[in-house]
Amino acid sequence: MKYKYGKPSITDDDEQRETTEVRRLAAQHGDNGFNSPPDAYWGNTIVRTNNRIDRATSGKALSISWAARVAIPGVVAIISFLIGLHYYVPEPRKEDNSLTAIVGMLASDEIDSMNVVPPDVDVSLSVPNYHGDVFELSSADIADYFLASGGVSTLMETLPSGQVDDLLIQLGSQKSHL
Amino acid sequence: MDHLSDQELVLEVRNGNRRAFTELMHRYQKRVYWVARRIVGSHAAADDVVQEAFIKAYLGLGEFRGDASFFTWIYRIAVNLSLNAIRKGQVMSYLRQSDIMNMILPSEEHPGDELEQQESESLVQRAIATLPEKQKAVFVMRYYDEMSYDEISAVLKTSVGGLKANYFHALKKVQEFVKREI
Fold first, then answer.
1. CA distance linking residue B182 with residue B176, whole number of Å
2. Residues 64-103, chain B: which have Cβ within 8 Å of A?
């Protein structure tokens, strides 16, 4: 089996040869590596490890661990959220939606075209089939309004003299009936 | 407990049998110790890695899926802890701690201290100390433990091709170091 390591490719035999060379050099130097710990060390390590496991799994250790990992960060997060919610003031929308602003956003030629040819407004929903001026009232409507509100003198100034005479006749006949 | 396989022991531990875990420690503590010792270079640091590795294994046994062997798993934990120890410079602090203990207590109460004194005498170990951490781990596993590349790959989660390159590079560096020192 070959693999590339720079140039040229290195074989398993190359690796084996280099490993043997390092071992030979180390032995030549009298290098036998580390001395093993005394036998007592191994038994002692197991006892110490078991003791540490006991401490790590005791109720107190677990409660401290749980508090450190879950409870404290959780409480801090909730408090931060509530404080944030308390002081949270929504920022006003930066976009101005007023009619002026919207018209201002239109291109100048579009504004010109609207001025020259105003868009048709469909009034059929609010004033069906009405083609006249809504502010142009008939004299009869005006008379009814002033009579109801008691403004008779104003009515006399508004109506033509012929209609005033008719009105006075009608009022006189109503009075005689009463 | 001797007759049980690793897998059976793991099941026993999950059922709350601490003796089963002690048996697992018996089986693998030496290999875990030696890989840690050769990576970190210090007996005291290796001792701590061994304990930490088994504690971590015990506490994390619920997450052990069993797709690798227990040995591969504990070995991987030990290698990672050893590399972390080097990164954090714990080895140096342990050496200082050991010096302090030497001053306070007679040497026979701390057999590990004698081991510390012998550490600097290992030429290959001094060469290993100069390697980058990945090469260090691969070299220890291949040169000392004579693990196959597939086994090393399972531990380090690295491709076999990369491991071979790492090992050969480390081998050349160690060889050059030893030749220079002789």
1. 10
2. none
Whole-angstrom distance, CA of residue B50 vs CA of residue B41 = 13
**pLDDT top residue among B45 and B103:** B45
Query: Exposed (0-12), middle (13-18) or buried (19+): which is B45, by Cβ within 10 Å?
Result: buried
Chain segment A96-150, per-residue pLDDT in tens: 667 777 777 887 777 777 666 655 555 555 555 555 566 667 777 777 777 777 7
Q: Which residues of B8-30 are buried (b: 16+ CB within 10 A; e: fewer)?
A: ebbebbeeeeeebbbbbbebbbe
Euclidean distance between CA atoms A57 and A169, whole angstroms: 112
Chain A contact probe: residue of B47, B74, B138 with most A CBs at under 10 A: B47
**Contact status of B22 with chain A (Cβ, < 8 Å):** yes
Rounded Cα distance, B42 and B120, in Å: 10
DSSP character at residue B107: G
Task: Yes or no: say if B7 and B15 are a contact pair by the CB < 8 Å rule.
Answer: no
pLDDT at A26 over 80: yes
Q: Hey, is the C-beta of A47 within 8 angstroms of any chain B C-beta?
A: no
What is the least distance, in Å, from the CA of B127 to any CA of chain A? 11
Is the separation of the CB atoms in B142 and B152 below 8 Å?
yes
How far is residue A83 CA from its own chain's centroid? 19
Q: What is the mean predicted confidence (pLDDT) over A86-92?
A: 75
Q: Is A2 helix (H, G, I), strand (E, B) or coil?
A: strand
For residue B68, the distance in angstroms to the closest alpha carbon of chain A comes to: 23
Contact of A26 with A17, CB cutoff 8 Å? no
Confidence class for position A174, pLDDT limits 50, 70, 90:
low
Spatial neighbors of B40 by CB under 8 A, at least 6 apart, are: B46, B49, B82, B85, B86, B90, B91
Asked whether the beta carbons of B84 and B19 are under 8 A apart, the reply is no
Please tell me the pTM assigned to this model.
Answer: 0.60
Lookup: tokens for A60: 């107190």
C-beta atoms of A49 and B124 within 8 A = no
